[in-house]
Amino acid sequence: MLGYYFTLALRSFRRNKALTALMVLAIALGIGASMTTLTVFHVLSGDPIPQKSDRLFNVQLDPQPLAGYQPGEEPLELLTRFDAEELLRQKKAKRQALMTGGGVIIEPERSTLKPFSNDARYASSDFFPMFDVPFLHGRGWSAQDDDAHARVAVINKALNDKLFNGEDSTGRSVRLSGHDFRVIGVIENWEPQPHFYDLFTGSYGEGESVFLPFSTAIELSLSRNGNMNCFDDRGNVEPTDRAAPCAWMQYWVELESPSQVTTYKTYLDNYSQQQRSAGRFQRPPNTRLRNVMAWLAHNEVVPGDVRLQMWLAFGFLLVCLVNTVGLLLAKFLRRSGEIGVRRALGAPRMEIFKQCLMEAGVIGLTGGVLGLGFAWLGLWGVRQQPADYASLAHLDPAMLLLTFALALLASLLAGVLPAWRAMQVTPAIQLKSQ
């Protein structure tokens, strides 16, 4: 019967081409606007490391002065160098990594390439295994390399292709900001979106192309970037010095179970109390331990205008559906005579309802195809914007399927009232009027 109802729907479309075109266009416009904004929201709010986002935690401490303190207020989002290096030294988690963003001037060996600058990441050795960074060649550095301030580097595939024509460059030398480093690893173009591990150097877009041991970068005074909060008078001390009262470093740990999370949180509270007893901290223990998704939510990574645009687009879809309900109602009630004959010949009301819903569903799928084109056009427009997330606006297979599912669901919902009204047609009255 469904095949028969599908044939009847096609015949109905040919009889009422203009009305059918209006309904298809209404649904297509609503679906196109909704899927454009929903795709952007989906990309920006996704889990950047789903295989272990519930096991990676950002650490927050509160080394600020007591003045102005209110119990329960949010501590600083970054750590001081002293605290980050001390937590790293004590190694109370399965894995732990301190890091900060930076920038280097790359001086190619080939004379055909001019020096250029690239973003860098200065981190400790657990960075690569903790974040599941994929390697093409070689490996990351070791804790011993951290301690020895080794001049080693890991580069990404794009930089490797540019400097070494895509060859395995492990063991070769690369000159960064006037210093020679030995390449020990080449990674894939690893760019989790958003950049959850450091939201202060840009939440979206391209990742770093050079990775260096933090201890080496500090020793060589390589340039850094990102936020810095100096909360006390540091005198003549440089803000990046170990003793400076400045928070500028990210610190992440990997914990495998809820019990480990509880234990580590207790450890952070005890550490804060010890630092308070030593005179470094003035406030009572005020620590936070958030996993990846909680950290992203806390920092409100998804821009507010993206959320607003998504709700406005769904509101527009609702308006389109209301118009479609009116058009379907007019279309079905104009066929009251035909429906009355079918009912007089013995067709049950439910079969009339199914036939009308089938027609609404076919209109919805057709609108979904056209709406997909509108969505692609809308996403192209998003990619022309100067926002750092613009290049990410692409339909993935899941959103492609959702386009048709949403179009079908929306059209079926729009068809419920008209179909219900159509199946209420009284055969005797219709036959008498004919």
Give a verbal description of the structure.
The chain is α+β, with helices and mostly antiparallel strands and 434 residues long. The chain folds into 2 domains: 2-45 and 303-433, no CATH class; 56-298, no CATH class. The chain is built from 14 helices and 13 strands. It has helices at residues 2-15, 17-44, 81-90, 127-130, 143-148, 157-164, 214-219, 258-277, 292-298, 304-333, 336-344, 349-383, 397-423, 427-433; strands at 56-60, 79-80, 95-107, 116-123, 135-138, 152-156, 173-176, 179-187, 210-213, 224-225, 229-230, 246-254, 288-291. The chain has a 6-stranded mixed beta barrel with strand order 3-4-9-6-8-7. A hairpin with an 8-residue loop joins strand 3 (95-107) and strand 4. Helix 2 crosses helix 13 (397-423), helix 10 (304-333) runs parallel beside helix 13 (397-423) and helix 11 packs across helix 14 (427-433). The mean pLDDT is 85.
In short:
With 434 residues, the chain is of the alpha+beta class.
Could you give the order of the helices and strands? Answer: HHEEHEEHEHEHEEEHEEEHEHHHHHH
Rg value: 31 Å
Q: Biggest β-sheet, characterized?
A: 6 strands, mixed, barrel
Strand order across the biggest sheet?
3-4-9-6-8-7
Proportion in helices? 40-55%
* Class based on secondary structure composition and strand pairing: alpha+beta
- Count of helix runs: 14
Instruction: Provide the domain count.
Output: 2
* Mean pLDDT metric: 85
Task: Describe how the helices and strands are arranged.
Layout: H1 2-15, H2 17-44, E1 56-60, E2 79-80, H3 81-90, E3 95-107, E4 116-123, H4 127-130, E5 135-138, H5 143-148, E6 152-156, H6 157-164, E7 173-176, E8 179-187, E9 210-213, H7 214-219, E10 224-225, E11 229-230, E12 246-254, H8 258-277, E13 288-291, H9 292-298, H10 304-333, H11 336-344, H12 349-383, H13 397-423, H14 427-433
Parallel strand pairs: 4-9, 6-8
Antiparallel strand pairs: 1-12, 1-13, 2-12, 3-4, 3-7, 3-10, 3-12, 5-8, 6-9, 7-8, 11-12
